[in-house]
Request: fold
Amino acid sequence: MFQIRIHGRGGQGVVTAAELFSVAAFFDGKYAQAFPSFGSERMGAPVTAFCRISNAKIRSHEPVSHPNVVIIQDSTLLLHVDVFSGLSQNGYVLINSTRTLEALQVEEFCSTLPEGHCRVIPVSEIAMQHLGQPFVNTGLVAGFAKLTGSLSKLSVEKAIQQKFPGHLGNLNAKIVAKVYEQNIG
Amino acid sequence: MAHQPIKFYQTGTFTIGNRLLDKSEQTLQSQVERTNSLNSGHRACQGCGEALGARYAIDAAMRASNNQLVAVNATGCLEVFSSPYPESAWQIPWMHSLFGNAPAVASGVAAALRAKGEKGVKVIAQGGDGATVDIGFGCLSGMFERNDDVLYICYDNEAYMNTGVQRSGATPPKAWTNTTQAVGTHPGNPVGIGKNVPRIAMAHGIPYVATASVADLHDLEAKVAKAMGLHGARYIHIHVPCPLGWKSDPALTLKVARLAVESGLFPLFEAEYGEVTDCTPIRRQVPVERYLELQGRFKHVFADPLAREAIAEIQAIADTNIKRYGLVRKGVTNGT
Amino acid sequence: MKQQIEGSQAVATVVAFCRPEVMACYPISPQTHIVETLSQKVKAGEVGTCQFLNVESEFAALSVLIGASAMGARAYTATTSQGLLFMAEAVYNAGGLGLPIVMTIANRAVGAPINIWNDHSDSMAMRDAGWIQLFAENNQEAVDLHIQAFRLAEELSCPVMVCMDGYILTHAFELVDLPTQEQVDDYLPPFEPVQVLDPLNPISIGAMVGPDAFMEVRYLAHDKHIRALEAISRTSEAFHEQFGRMSGGLLESYHTEGAETIIVALGSVNGTIKDAIDELRLAGLSVGSIKISSYRPFPTHAFHEVVKDAKRILVIEKDLAVGKGGIVSSDVRMAVQNLPLVVMTVIAGLGGRAIPKSSIVRIVREACLEGLEEPHFLDLNWNAVNDEFVRQQKKRRSGLIPKNIPGDVGPFKLKVGQ
Reply:
């Protein structure tokens, strides 16, 4: 069982990211469950969403308290939210930022994880280049897929195309390609 | 005016003599073709204005809809006196659900008919003033706002009579009820509050709003027939004296109703899409005392040391109505 | 077809396949995604001539359906929490009139204090209103129960609530095998009302009944529910036959054969309970569980049969009868009143409090070893509660409890994992 926790802010597509994870896993022939950290709908408020991916049927409906992967859509949350809570010792961290792990002051924590499990990708910048808007969910899903190798690129692309059909999907496909060029994984 | 006024006055009473009119001008109720939708044998009190109003209104609606009518009824006197099971005075498909939801239930009936492509069947909702202006007001406003294809008829007897005469949002100023007793320094219902639902209905911009009275049954029938010819949300507010709650003589129900109209306290008008289109002029204006003095619920007004002031306050309401709707026209005589 | 889909979307899809004729909806979290999707489907012309009414309140929503159903139309709405309580009078009315309306409850706590998260307080408040109440464990079951609900409601002429946990199911993307329109059409016959407003055959619906007959009318309503037990099983079996999977029914047993301890629960927590049972059984504990699918009518006899050889029952329930304790556990006690076993109540998950597998494992072990106080409040923060007792003893105006407790629990912080 792979458990993902995504931290972002209302309006950034946190829930959509979790959905994309689960749909991509579904296309990979796996069982998946995605759900948000339910709350009132306000722009800018800290939001969490979760995804479980498994080879077996998923019965549990408890929240993810011990994730294998933490994805941070908005690095300002590092100051306010205990984003690494419960992360497994072999876990992964993926942060959307143009800054380095040192500059984000998470280097110390990341050193407790295996080499190469903590990555920063400037997904907002990549999204701005291709979409003209800082929608980061597709880029981060691609980043996760490459970092962990637990989802196929094909399924990620298929999930994105299903969620954003047509032109928007093509633009997002470019984001995915760009993220895959990054030195991660 | 919904119908052509007939220039024939019986001496003293102004009652329009059906028998003296051409058949086409007689009320439906006086004709053998009437459907008796609210049949005889019901349990309404002697002199009940609501039973009379409902009988005229529903039969008129039946004729206008080719007898293809469904009625939804709020809880209240009309619902109670026309039942209980196993008996029912209703000769039409009729449904009672709750006190506060008749407009919504009727919306549902209309929606079901629309879904089934059934265009011939018309929907009426009806209730007393409590069901309409108070507890069912939210549903009524929703039904208006959505312009659902329903004619809503309010039978206004100005208090909760079914529960034993308590104040409603339609109870007039100074009136005694069991919850606005004639005691203290300001006996009866306070002045300056309450709701005018016909005007609120107009504010929704619905196709048709009208007031009617059992004092003018030709007019009442004509307005129902007119409303039934239109689509969308329609509202008719009928003034129906209640001898029990008004402490008036059951034999004088029509006279009391007529004096409400002739004093200007209950203006008769029609409005389409939020604009007043017509009103019934007062034939012989009477001061409000003539109306009030026939009702025990206003008895304290006359006994009050400040009676003149109290009556003046009520007269001011009538005067406002007369001015607003232009009820008194040239050549009208002032009655005494 | 199998899809990875949000619970609300899946339910809306299948409700549309059930060909409702009138829907009246008022938005309330977490029901909104269901009615948004349905309004879109109706507007796009995907639901035939169905009428979708945006109404001014939940009371109006159900009232509209009362009228529509009495006119012979298939009628549907969804609500939750305050919305369900706001329509309470109409809920009883539809039950009393025997109108086969189907309503989704996206289960949510009832305020005050206002709380939008999941528990079962809302459905429990309406448990005696004369509606059948079916509870879904996951989104597949939520989908399947809606198809069954229309068939059941219309066969019995009795309204049905399909209860699914708010957010936990409504907002979760899970694998769901969605039926096709043709499959639903094969399973769900057209609505033939037993009572209808018809100008050609006028009847009076909903008139008064006096003391001489009211008792008998109510008895027959009770009898209808008792008979519904058989219909619920039959409807579920017919579903199994056609769709090839079990969903609904009266209850579902998990490792109850020979089990000393049996956990009883409603709704989505049953999945977590099954995982906990697997863990406990690996550790050598004789534990099983019963998922109650039909809470009203309560399957007293079927329940009795499953638990008759057990030693103890742990009812984990997401509700609270203030001043008494458990609600479901009362039904359970009635079902086992002549059996030599202990029934324990565990109040859990109120207002969206997570029910982790670890807590279930712990409480089952405690219950087996020493028993539990009655009722037991799972994962209650006793420090915060005791601090409040101290404050109240110190002075009369000791502050508002709903303000004090979150203060005790800690400064506001995103509670990760809750």
The longest strand of chain B covers residues 122-128. The domain at 18-328 of chain B is CATH 3.40.50.970 (Rossmann fold). Strands of chain B lie at 69-73, 94-96, 122-128, 151-156, 208-213, 234-239, 269-272, 275-279, 284-285, 333-334.
